[in-house]
Write a sequence for this structure.
């Protein structure tokens, strides 16, 4: 039986990157292409859209679906809210929230929303 986190009965691997594709990180692109060549189902979650004008040919070999997250949370409040609604039901959420609140008291710039962002679209 297939579920949102499997493809053809095999688990998918999420690769979270600061930006995709990036000319300066061809090593990562080669590793991703190599995993795909071996049949590993991947998804790329990129925190930023590409800014390089040029790209390396290895980027063309990567076929994984790429999800671009909003660079700023203010740009996609629905996704942030959806992530929070999903995350708050997960095991360990309350413990993580308590730790976040301790960190927030120590550093008021701490941002729980950024931690929740990738989960909003994961699996579905």
């Amino acid at each position: 039986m297939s579920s949102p986190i499997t493809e053809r009965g095999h688990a998918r691997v999420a690769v979270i990157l600061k930006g995709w594709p990036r000319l300066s990180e061809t090593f990562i692109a080669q590793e991703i292409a190599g995993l795909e060549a071996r049949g590993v189902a991947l998804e790329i979650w990129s925190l930023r859209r590409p800014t390089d004008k040029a790209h390396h040919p290895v980027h063309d070999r990567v076929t994984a679906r790429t999800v671009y997250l909003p660079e700023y949370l203010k740009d996609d409040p629905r996704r942030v809210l959806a992530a929070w609604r999903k995350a708050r039901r997960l095991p360990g959420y309350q413990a993580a929230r308590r730790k976040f609140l301790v960190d927030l008291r120590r550093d008021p710039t701490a941002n729980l929303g950024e931690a929740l962002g990738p989960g909003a679209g994961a699996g579905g």
